[in-house]
Amino acid sequence: MSRIDAAHPVLACRDVAASVRFYRSLGFALSFQDDADAPRYAAVHRDGVELHLQWADAGQWRDGIDRPAYRFLVADVDALHGEFAAALPPDAWHGPWARPADTPWGTREFHLRDPGGNVLQFYRPR
């Protein structure tokens, strides 16, 4: 059977440059972007994870439209939260797991939102 080596999710953004800045504050490095001044498509990477960031039309951002959630398996939930907490504004943290906590489904995790409204969940099985 053929092997799948990686997944590179494409996250919708209202402002690709702002999203690149956000992910860089989390320790991601810029892989590429289509335009230096006004990017509409870019990619960032960290620790073997690559995320693509794509501009989306304003009509896709109506109230009530749920944004996707992306889950990241990490080595140390609490240490990563501490690293991110130093770089992020208070409004980035999301929901009941804005701080690391043990979940009823057997993980320890925390959640935040990127500037495009995408939910990022960082977790580790207990």
Report on the architecture of this protein.
The protein is an alpha/beta fold. It folds into 2 domains: 7-58, 2,3-Dihydroxybiphenyl 1,2-Dioxygenase, domain 1 (Roll); 67-126, 2,3-Dihydroxybiphenyl 1,2-Dioxygenase, domain 1 (Roll). The chain contains 2 helices and 8 strands. It has helices at 16-25, 77-85, and strands spanning 10-13, 29-33, 41-46, 49-55, 69-73, 101-102, 107-113, 119-125. The strands form 2 sheets. It has a 4-stranded mixed sheet with strand order 1-4-3-2, with helices on one face. The chain has a 4-stranded mixed sheet with strand order 5-8-7-6, with helices on one face. Strand 7 (107-113) and strand 8 form a beta hairpin. It is globular, with a radius of gyration of 15 Å. The N and C termini lie far apart (32 Å).
| Total discrete domains | 2
Number of strands: 8
Radius of gyration: 15 Å
- Gross morphology is globular
Biggest sheet record: 4 strands, mixed
Helix fraction bin: 10-25%
